[in-house]
């Protein structure tokens, strides 16, 4: 198809200059150009307008652009995982509420059934519950206070009762299974304020708990006179432990203190 | 793309890219910056660029940087000085000198299209991808630019 429209032919010439025609179109416009000096001149003009690549302009900073081809492997920095913080933040209110709730429960449990009626009992014989008796007699003891017992068992378990462990437990919580429990009934005579000391079977102690109690009471009274001996309730526990073990060896004592504040402490006898 | 392929791309295309940037922005330092930025972008994204598309990728980045350069507020006096310093007609033949001068009357976009077509030999379609123009737009703008150059040079000839 022959086109005579000047505008169209000029466009075709421009496309020819730009190399955008397919072979058939190219041949067609070349024929037109060849047959017209005017179009030939136009073609030559456009051809002369084409920029020539300027090879003299070169990039002189190629080395700055290049990268080392062997790159040491650098592990990507570990993204610090934040989920433990989120988990902690989520659990914190639950922990606080739980602590308050258990605290309230504990207070209720020990309100009238404290381990030690007073931190400084004047007469523990009257202060302690009537069920307090030496271990030998505690088979007949009334153990109806189930929640308290459960709590105590928990404490004892926590003490990991291996040989050498002493635990201060509530007298009414002693059970027949705890064969080697010595109740050291505090009284004004000895000035001892230890409510009870339970030992694991490190060495046999007197079968007659009453005797053992008396012996311990006397022993502790003697120890108490020593200015260097530990004083107070905790000191009594330590002294009692030392007396029972008959030697100063490393031993763990778990004690429970307080009327409304029930806490556990682990100490080492040396 | 490996580091080795990247370095080959530097050897192969850095001259052309620098020429394109220099002709477009007319400032050697700015052209150098544009080339460095283009290659830095290529290095960062080297995993996503295949070796056969490197040239097109580089020119696309360079074109964008050139356009960014023109959008920046500039000191027109300084710009004019730099253009004069860069384009020295004595270095070329008379016709080439006029042609380089004539390029200055073109708008930035038309000039870029001419450079991509004549210097790099890109097709309209490829130029469209680089400059984000349609095939028809490239064709129209390029033809218009060539006609403008032709008219300018014809009038220049007549004056001389």
3D structure, described in words:
The complex is a heterodimer of chains A (270) and B (160). Chain A has 270 residues and is of the alpha+beta class. Chain A folds into two domains: 6-65; 114-269, no CATH class. In chain A, 43% of the residues lie in helices and 8% in strands. Chain A is built from nine helices and five strands, in the order H-H-H-H-H-H-H-E-E-E-H-H-E-E. A five-stranded mixed beta sheet of chain A has the order 2-3-1-4-5. Chain A is rod-shaped, with a radius of gyration of 49 Å. The model of chain A is unreliable at 109-211 and 263-270 (pLDDT under 50). Chain B is mainly α and 160 residues long. Chain B has two domains: 1-86, Rna Polymerase Sigma Factor, Chain: A, CATH 1.10.1740; 91-160, Arc Repressor Mutant, subunit A (Orthogonal Bundle), CATH 1.10.10.10. Helices cover 77% and strands 0% of the residues of chain B. Chain B has helices spanning 3-25, 28-44, 54-71, 76-86, 94-103, 108-118, 124-131, 135-159. The longest helix of chain B has 25 residues, at 135-159. Chain B is globular and about 55 Å long. The N and C termini of chain B lie far apart (53 Å). Classes of the chains: A alpha+beta (270), B mainly alpha (160). Chain A binds chain B through residues 11, 14-15, 17-20, 45-46, 48-54, 57-59, 61-62, 64-71, and chain B through 2-4, 6-7, 10-11, 14-15, 17-19, 22, 32, 35-36, 39, 43, 95-96, 99, 103, 114-115, 117-119, 121, 123-124, 139, 142-143, 146, 149-150, 153-154.
